Amino acid sequence: MSEDRGDARPSRTTRPPRPGATRTALAALSGLIAGFCALAVAEPAAALLRPEAGPVAAVGGAVIDRTPPAVRDFAVRNFGTADKLVLQLGILVLLALFAMAIGVLALRHRRTGSAAVLVFGLVGALAAAGRPGGAPADALPSVVGAVVAVAVLYLLVGRLGPAPAAGGRGEGAYGGFDRRGFVVAATATAAASAGAGLLGRRLTSSVQAGASASRHDLVLPAPRSPAAALPPGAELKIRGLSPFFTPNKDFYRVDTALVVPRLDAAGWRLRIHGEGVARPLTVGLHDLLRREIIERDITLACVSNEVGGPYIGNARWLGVRLADLLREAGVRPPSAGDPADQLVARSVDGMTIGTPVGAVMDGRDAMLAFGMNGEPLPFEHGFPVRMVVPGLYGYVSACKWIEDIELTTFDAYDAYWVRRDWAQQAPVKTESRIDTPRPLASPKPGTVPVAGVAWAQHRGISRVEVRVDGGKWHTARLAAADTRDTWRQWVWEWHAVSGRHTLEVRATDGTGATQTGRRTGTVPDGATGRHSVVVEVS
Fold it and tell me: Which of 118, 173, 362, 414 could serve as a FRET partner for 106 with CA atoms 20 to 30 Å apart?
């Protein structure tokens, strides 16, 4: 018996993609491959010059140079030491999107698309050559990459054939383009690009191998003036409290270097010159190693550290007194009549840091350091030599990868960060931090150790106080003091009761000045305010 199916609906079938849409998608892919080729070919070119000349590093560096302080602080606060990785990933995503757009443009206007690629290459070239410390030769990797990208884009888009006439369906399933030729060309160029990128990485590793070997082979001399042994009781054994000495791997890193400079110690030189320098000096690392070596415990802090933030660390540094070198060069402090009141330190990556000459020569342990916590400086922290000046924020004292010191005046020259709205001079403020309990922790009722660190480098810490829910201030127990140039641990035994509570801390420095409760941001010379944490006792 048959059924009437006259009312049955026709079955739906999947339509093949329109030829125009397919060609557009493949044109976008062509642009992406061309962009990949540009970056890959630029890699070995940059390795032969210097890694900082690579397009991504150059453009990223230019972005950092032009980033407003508030945006930079946001990045440091939210991404920490991963801020550079986030920036590089963002640049790569934008480059990929622009490359795909240029590929689609080239499908319709091949010459215009090629010109757009050259414009992007020009941007990379100008960024590389125009950065602080850049040279005209640094433009070469971006130029080479752009030329190769134009050729690749021209080749791949050419395989897609001319656009079909308006209203026409084109020839064949893919609109008349050479499908096989496109696949072969795209695969070959992608493979060649991967090979070029791998070659670039190997060249970079080969170039940097000498630097790694020089660090590995460096034997640190015994200091003629060693640091005093850590006093008993200087480190409180409390879970969650920051260790007195910050391990090198955990020491904060805040700088503008997308590519960490890796210098060969044998070729490193430092030049000292400028106003009031009667005898200009040029010294190498081995010259420093033959001088009087000092060892000191010094806490460094970043001006971008928010109240209660992590960008502070304490280490045992090994090096030579910077004041001794300046005196050998004939420099006298401004108080003795010399004209220069600013020491401008220059890094190999072009960074400039301005430090008061008076602070370097007032008797504090300002150093050219080459050792950190018993080993040569890590590359990330300035190998082979960096500046360390106790009592000043890093942006006005802690030049890493230093290669030049020029004596000048604050009126005559603004260093890198000063040109970006930060203060010329910035002594470290008196600050304190609660390390334990952590924010939103849930301790049990009873005795709860509230502990942390306080710092006021070159003034020392004389008292730390804690209060609960805005009540009376209670004096915390201080750990034994190492030196006035280091932070100091503290603890207060809190008799906690059930409920939600706010713990707040303040410190008093060696001059008797108590940490202010007025909240300010990090710009222009460091944040102020008291650190507090909220906990739920249950």
Answer: 173
Which residue type occupies 173?
A
Name the band, by pLDDT with cuts 50, 70 and 90, for residue 177: confident
Over residues 443-453, mean pLDDT: 98
Integer CA distances (angstroms), 236 to 38, 431, 461, 463, in order:
55, 19, 16, 16
Task: Convert the pLDDT of each residue in 7-39 to its tens digit.
Answer: 444 445 555 555 578 889 999 999 999 999 999
DSSP tag of 3: -
- Distance between CA atoms of 116 and 121, rounded to whole angstroms? 9
pTM of the model: 0.85
Closest by CA to 403, choosing from 345, 323, 483, is 345
Q: What angle do CA 206, 131, 137 make, to 5 degrees?
A: 55
SS (H, E, C) 287-342: HHHCCCCEEEEEEEECCCCCCCCCCEEEEEEEEEEHHHHHHHCCCCCHHHCCCCCE
**Distances in whole angstroms, Cα of residue 1 to Cα of each of 4, 5, 6, 7:** 10, 13, 15, 18
The per-residue b/e assignment along 92-102, b for 16 or more CB within 10 angstroms, e otherwise, is: eeebeebbbeb
Interacting residues of 81 by C-beta distance below 8 A, sequence separation 6+: 252, 253, 254
Specify which residues 535 forms β-bridges with: 501
**Rounded to an integer, what distance in angstroms lies between the CA atom of residue 472 and that of residue 170?**
84
Do β-strands 367-372 and 386-388 pair in parallel, antiparallel, or remain unpaired? antiparallel
Q: Is 443 a residue whose pLDDT tops 60?
A: yes
- Residue (of 100, 114, 195) closest to 149 by Cα position: 114
pLDDT the model gives residue 18: 54
Token pair of 194 as six digits: 């991967």
pLDDT at residue 76 greater than cutoff 90 = no
47: β partners:
none
